[in-house]
Design brief:
26% strand; 5 helices; alpha/beta; 7-stranded mixed sheet
Length: 157
């Protein structure tokens, strides 16, 4: 059993407030209203109600079982969607768990129409490496939140 499946019952209690805060910041910053959103590493997708058109993807079957919205099992590095399928792609505090984060970023670019948000845990062991990967592959601006840096690409410019 993977770590996140093992904590699925208490996941929202452990991480809910901080995840919700980040998602609310993202919605406000990008002015998300009716856009089609893909959430990579969605976990329990407990905040999916904030989006009108939401799809979540995660590799933790335990977390997905706790979700009650449009979620699917899958890997960030091999998204099962057509090119430019989503108006906005978000990845909230998950990239540090991916097997191949650069491949995941390239997949985000492929399925996005331009708007991509990645939040990166400041205390991630590979923080510097991931920050450089994000900045190399996306045209982002960023700002700090309590525990994360939020990287935003708001179009292809």
């Amino acid at each position: 059993m993977d770590y996140y499946s093992s904590i699925a019952d208490g996941y929202n209690e452990l991480y809910g407030d901080e995840q919700l805060n980040k998602v609310e910041i993202i919605i406000k910053e990008l002015k998300i209203k009716n856009e089609k959103v893909l959430d990579i590493g969605c976990g329990t997708a407990f905040y999916s109600y904030l989006f009108k058109d939401y799809t979540g993807i995660d590799i933790s079957k335990g977390l997905l079982k706790k979700a009650n919205n449009n979620v699917i099992f899958g890997k960030a590095e091999k998204l099962q969607f057509n090119d430019k399928s989503f108006d906005v792609v978000i990845c909230v505090t998950a990239i540090h768990n991916f097997d191949d984060p650069e491949k995941a970023i390239l997949e985000m670019k492929r399925v996005s129409k331009g708007k991509i948000v990645i939040t990166l845990l400041k205390r991630a062991k590979n923080f510097k490496f991931l920050k450089e990967l994000i900045e190399k592959n996306l045209k982002v601006y960023n700002f700090e939140e309590d525990k994360d840096i939020i990287f935003i690409q708001d179009s292809y410019n």
